[in-house]
Amino acid sequence: MSDHVLVINAGSSSLKYSLVDAASGEAAAIGLIERIGESEGHQLHRGPNGETSTALSISSHEDALKAAINAFETQGPSLDDLDIVAVGHRVVHGGSWFADPVLVDDDLIAKVTELVPLAPLHNPANLEGMRVARRLFPDLPQVAVFDTAFHQTLEPEAYTYAVPHEWLKEHGIRRYGFHGTSHAFVSGEAARLLGRDPADVNLIVLHLGNGCSATAVRGGRSVDTSMGMTPLEGLVMGTRSGDLDPAIHGHLSRELGLPLDKIDRLLNYESGLKGLSGENDFRELSKRRAAGDDRAQLAFDVYRHRIKKYVGAYYAVLGTVDAIVFTAGVGQNAAELRAASLEGLERLGIQIDDERNTASSDKARVVSTDDSAVTVLVVPTNEEWQIAREALSVIRP
Ligand code: AMP
């Protein structure tokens, strides 16, 4: 029988789950519970018998996981019939401690708790997910898989901010990088698609979803990445500004009399595409652009310009680039954005093929011309499968 891993992604008011065959990546079931702690919550469960959507009030992550277990019992697949070997947890911030997935124990919980100040929006929810799953699945090994782990291979020259030296040790001020699970998965798939050993391939991976990040990958190892100490730095995102002159914080605080916390919030939730155009969803933004909306056009232009800038920067970091890889909601689907981000880079050996780029497909594929020196790929990401594989690698080293 195949090894299944129950993958859990606990957010502040949501819990996503997926029961994944670690060998094939096939999901026997997926589910999402939203608005935990509010009076009107919602559960979606998709299993072998189809999809159900239920309104229910869920007060805690513990109740959410119980609701998930209940959905497995009533709608299938039965958890007892499948060979579940582990629970895999997505954990956003592993700091400098974790370069690999690890078994969840009291020491890990203590370390992830210490990292809460670096990821105040994510780590508390991830911790709660791990605590609850340990209580409800006491006999299964629990494995934490960190978003930051893939980037622990960065050299000091790439992860160090040029600030007073003592800040690094005393306050953990450095670049950690995020979306590592996706960058790791997509890098492996890209090498496979190129028919090459991952150790021989240089890639620029562009994860463009609600959050966006670029990573320079040399021989399967991350050597630079656009997100920094927090997931705010780098590319323009749905609601996050990405790169910004750090003096803007102080300036706005003085001009508007706003506390820094408030400015932090505005940069995380009210900026990016949303800040510029009022619309954070890329599909809606595209509709508005097509209708001649100037702000939507500006948002699109700033977004693609930033991507192009990072492609150039990471080209220089890597020296030679075998492929540029687009992934996640925007990267996989928005052909126009892919073409616009790489426009004018023919002299760098990057040539998109219009027909391939605009052909509709949900498969991993080449979208560059045959004579493009740098291959351009679209590779659907699958973080759940990567978490399942990594969890299995911990319990069966
Ligand atoms: P993700 O975080 O990977 O789920 O990506 C979410 C983003 O992908 C949102 O901005 C969506 O509007 C965008 N997206 C999803 N599907 C499409 C599509 N078919 N065309 C353009 N953007 C899309």
Topology:
Layout: E1 4-10, E2 15-21, E3 27-34, E4 41-47, E5 50-56, H1 61-75, E6 84-91, E7 102-103, H2 106-114, H3 123-136, E8 142-146, H4 156-159, H5 165-171, H6 180-194, E9 202-208, E10 212-218, E11 221-225, H7 247-256, H8 260-269, H9 272-277, H10 282-290, H11 294-318, E12 323-327, H12 328-333, H13 335-342, H14 354-358, E13 365-366, E14 375-378, H15 383-395
Helix pairs in contact: 1-3, 6-15, 10-11, 11-13
This protein binds adenosine monophosphate (AMP).
Residues 209-210, 238, 281-283, 328-330, 333-334 line the site of adenosine monophosphate (AMP).
Can you give a write-up of this model?
The structure is a single chain. The chain has 397 residues and is an alpha/beta fold. It contains 15 helices and 14 strands. An 8-stranded mixed beta sheet has the order 5-4-3-2-1-6-8-7, with helices on both faces. A 6-stranded mixed beta sheet has the order 11-10-9-12-14-13, sandwiched between helices. Strand 9 and strand 10 form a beta hairpin. The chain is globular. It starts with a strand and ends with a helix. The mean pLDDT is 96. Adenosine monophosphate (AMP) binds next to helix 10 and helix 12. The site of adenosine monophosphate has 11 residues, from helix 10 and helix 12.
